Amino acid sequence: MRVFLILTVLIPVLCTPKDSVATEIILRWQEEVNSFNETYPEYKYQAPLIRIIGIDITNLDSLHHLWSCWGIQIEGTMAQSLDITGLRNLEVTGAHGFSIKRNQEENIVLPVFKDLRSVEGPFVINHSRIGNIQGVFPKLRNVASISIRSNNFLQINFLESLAFVGGDFHIIDNLNLFQISMPSLELIEGRMTISGSPVLQSISVSENFSIIAGELILNQLPRLEDMSFTNSLEMIGKDLRIIHTGLERLSIGDVEIIRNIFVSNNENLIDLSGLESLSYVFGDIEIRSNSNLLSIEGMDNWMNLIGQRVFLTNNPELNFCNTDFICAHLQTNRYFEAFGNGPNCSSPQIIQEQCVVSSERSLESKNTIIFPNPSTGYLRVELPGHGMHLVKVYSSEGVPLKMTKSQHPFEMDLSDLPAGFYLLKIKGEIHVATHPFILHP
Question: For residue 280, what pLDDT is reported?
């Protein structure tokens, strides 16, 4: 005997006076906007996706009752001006998000979205005629993703309450942008990309900004000299890409794990000391074409993992590559590429020779403490034991510059030396130690 089980599934449906539910409403003419409430009485307060693809639309005043919709997509009008203050009562948009895009010639007037708290789809602003809109989104706290692209903003300071981005975060090709301020931003669950803003100087976020679940990409930002907005980070889920910026120093907070690292064409970058929190890099490491890079000491704490490839190329001022990490990597016979650097870092073979020399003195070096490093004029040196020590300072080319004798501990005055990368050689009665250090102006 066969038994048939019949399941009845109840599917909730938006009830309307019509037999079917619209998935989108396209408005092309001002008359269609004016008669919206008569044409779509069931959508007066809650509506599906509304697309504005205007022929002669100048205002959206008839939509002032609307407080919720699946999405708003404003794709321009052939009129000279578009006033969208009729959307001022929006509180939430669904999976189609909120977008103002297509760089039309019309001017656009925005309301204060005083109650808009959530955009559950993409938040997009891509319109060359929008000016300062500070205060327009005072309560917007979370968006599914964000794209601010090809605008004429001088500042992005209109998302003061934004805390959570559920996907990618892109600020791209805003040629006049010099400041980004998002004082409430705490979490990005996708990629963070800031690129193509040649005059951008400042990025500030919340002190609780802790997670970028995807990549962190800073690209084509030649005036950006400060990366302190990342100081509170605890996680970067994928790659770190720093390309063609004005940064002198990198920073990633307390991040311990990264997939790949790409640092290239940063003319002002001096050292990698801001990366010392890292313990694990699971993929490739590429340090390329940084014309003033002096030191890679920030790599010392990194662990060698299976599959890693390392590229140190075309960093002409980089003359010391025999860090613990690099020396350990060379011993594994994994892929390593080095050329176009300073003389002591110009090939894997030469670096390997430097590693042999440094290993002979590793015990003495570990017992020596020098600080601060980098230094701004004075260097304090502490050694175990007592007795007289001969101390010499060498340039990165190996030229002796200063010499002194002192008891342990002692301080050196380096204020007469220019900024750069140096070596400190300390010779005691029973040991010799050599330490690289950086002198800042």
Answer: 81
